[in-house]
Amino acid sequence: MKVEKNKVVVLRYEVETEGKVVGSATAEEPFDYIHGTRTILPKLEEALEGLEAEAEFDCTVAPEDAYGAYDLKKVFDVPKSTFVVDGQLREDLLRVGAYIPLLNSAGEVCQGMVVSVGDETVTMDFNPPMAGKALRFRGQVLGVREATPQELLEGLHGEFLPSEGCGGCGHHGGHGHCHGHGEGHCHEHGEGECCGHGEGHCHEHGEGECCHGHGDGDGCCHS
Fold first, then answer.
1. Are 78 and 95 in contact (CB under 8 A)?
2. Whole-angstrom Cα distance, residue 51 to residue 35?
3. How far is residue 190 from each of residues 78, 93, 138, 211, measured CA to CA in Å?
């Protein structure tokens, strides 16, 4: 059976950028998706089209076909008051290099990296981590099968279903580099991450934390 629209495809792969492996899925813990549903990067999907089980692939995706060019306009200052919880500044969140999810005005999650921490503001970078980088995918097709009607409706892991509090984006696996929508739209929400509520401050949500910033509707959070 060949890889084509509405087929469930199971992959093992490694993804490299600048000579470093930045993501992978093994034969023991593979990545699976429904072909033709824009679940993975379109250029990678094109490279997999027509392959059969056990076929190997080697595909390089240019920055403009992956997560786009690096945009300096997505680096800006956020008031420190954004990170106050119950009257206390969450300094444990404000570590240089740490990623913190914020919500924009559209209720979408924006993953921002702490660049620097000042007296009154925190400089955040809302570019996707792989922005401006070419990605090389190398791996093997482990299996191909027909998707069931329920899978076509809901997704393999419920990723086509609305996700409460996340602007309708779904969770799919743990392999963000294969995700076709980029970090600026749908994110993986594990421990230490969540979708928040409220305006201009942080809230506690079980094991995770989330801060809510002000947005301009373009997928970036602004103060």
1. no
2. 12
3. 24, 15, 26, 15
Give the three-class secondary structure for 119.
Answer: coil
Token pair in block for residue 36: 């033709």
Instruction: Determine phi and psi for 66, rounding to 5 degrees.
Output: -110, -100
DSSP 147: P
CB 132 within 8 A of CB 64: no
Q: pLDDT tens for residues 148-199?
A: 999 999 999 998 988 654 433 333 333 445 654 333 322 333 333 323 333 3
Rg (CA), the chain: 19
Q: How far is C-alpha 188 from the chain's CA centre?
A: 6
Query: Which pLDDT tens digit goes with each residue over 29-50?
Result: 999 999 999 999 999 999 999 9
Helix (H, G, I), strand (E, B) or coil at 185: coil
CATH of region 7-67+130-178, choose from 3.40.50.720, 3.10.50.40, 3.40.640.10, 2.60.40.1220: 3.10.50.40
Q: Where in the chain is the domain with CATH 3.10.50.40?
A: 7-67+130-178
Closest alpha carbon to 187 in 75, 95, 98, 101: 101
SS3 4: coil
Phi, psi of 153 (to 5 degrees): -80, -45
